[in-house]
Amino acid sequence: MLRAPSSPHRHGGHSTPLPTGGRDAAEQVAYASRGTSPDVVELLCNWTDSRRPANAYATGAEQQVRTIDYQLRRLDGPHFDLPPKIKALAEARVTTRQDGSRITWRILLAAAHAGWAYSDVLAAADEYPGLIHLTHRRGPNGSRIPRRRPARHIARQWNRALGAAAAYRPSDHQNRPPVDDYLAAALAAVHAHPQLARGTHAAALRVVLYALITTMRSAHTLEVDLSMRRWALLCGSTKSSVCRDVAALIDLGVITRIARGRGTHADTYTLTIIPAQPVPGTQGFPPAASPTLEEAAGMLAHHSQDVFTSDQLGAAAAQVHHALLTDERASVASLATSVGLDERTCQELVARLRAVRLIVPSHLEAVDSEPMYAAAARRLGVYGELRRRERQYRAESAVWAWWCDELVWRGAKGPKPRAAWRVRLGRFPTTEDGRCNWPAAVRRMASRLSWEDATAAGRVRAA
């Protein structure tokens, strides 16, 4: 357990660095990271008259399965090429909507298992665009800022990857995490439910569920706090639409709200697996094909395009376009089966996508190009809509935090506490009769956030 130097203790005084016995910082960290011998652990357990848990996390020699060559900084064994999927991931450019840290970690783990050395990683950091997180950090508005000491960051991440690869046991991959098992079963149940597997409204409901499932999988938990604004941004939708969809899913019993949020904390939700019940009058629509968890995450990311926020397209059109991207030989009938639509509705959506040039006019082939997405969004008048919503929701969330601070400040007896938002923006705007002036507060907050973003961008350019 580490405490930052000079941080106060609850019993008085401040923390100070411990003596290192003549070792420098790197040697001290290496000394502390060696791990304890199992004999010492057994001795301590016997001394305290306690039993060592059967599933205790092994340390030291027990933890390491493969040997690390510390001279070359690689795992002992043969050198292999990267798997095709990992190599494609490394050669692809990381977009602003992707998590560069997670992509880099996947590539480094694969490289460690493939027997790469530290020198190979240094060369790959300049060669592969997928490893941009090693040399650049994420800045405001998704920009990439060069790191001041990239070699140090690369060395630290590579040491982490080597340690994880050395401790990996081949049997670990045979059992998926329990969270993934539950989410996969829930996803299959969703696509087997008639009210969620058929129709255009069901397509919108599924996107809301994809966002919840992806968030749960990233957090490795089945209970997540999720605000409507964040949920809407994940779905590429509006908060009012997501609010209605979430209410409909709660009525169906698929989503359960287990705790109401208080203050700046969002509501807590969980996912329920319910058996599908036949609904009369829905036999004419084919059920949507159930995707894997990875495919659901990819489908969710595909909705994050301005063009699909248009009323002429929407979630169903986004799923038709995504299905056509994954199956180049698809027909209208197979697309309808994949998305859960009748052929007539699917044909109309294909015509709309073809009108904005996201499907080739001569045959049934989807166009996957960022400039074409942008051109289609301009054609429909929705270019920049998601960025505008992000700024709006960001300002609204900050205003709510400002108002919560204001309530605490107003209700305090005696000396007033220091409210962070009140210090930055002053007193919360009110009307002439003393009521909360929410629109004025949102405008002031949006102006403040824009000024802070511009200032941060200026610092980056100056650096």
How would you concisely characterize the structure shown here?
It is built from 20 helices and seven strands. It has helices at residues 25-32, 38-47, 84-91, 100-113, 118-127, 132-135, 150-166, 178-192, 194-197, 200-219, 228-235, 239-252, 293-302, 314-326, 332-339, 343-355, 370-380, 385-411, 420-425, 438-462, and strands spanning 68-69, 74-75, 136-138, 144-146, 223-225, 255-259, 268-271. The strands form three sheets. The protein has a three-stranded antiparallel sheet.
Give an overview of the whole structure.
By secondary structure, the protein is mainly alpha-helical. 53% of the residues lie in helices and 5% in strands. It has 20 helices and seven strands. A three-stranded antiparallel sheet has the order 5-7-6. Strand 1 and strand 2 (74-75) form a beta hairpin. The two termini are 35 Å apart.
**What percent strand?**
under 5%
Order of helix and strand elements from N to C terminus:
HHEEHHHHEEHHHHEHHEEHHHHHHHH
Task: Give the neighbour order of strands across the main sheet.
Answer: 5-7-6
Poorly predicted runs are 52-63, 171-175, 279-284
Largest sheet: 3 strands, antiparallel
How much is the radius of gyration in Å? 27 Å
Question: What percentage of residues falls in helices of 4 or more residues?
Answer: 40-55%
Rounded mean pLDDT score: 77
Distance between the terminal alpha carbons, to the nearest Å?
Answer: 35 Å
Our count of helices gives: 20
How many DSSP E strands?
7
Counting helices, strands and paired strands, the structural category is mainly alpha
Q: Give the overall form.
A: globular
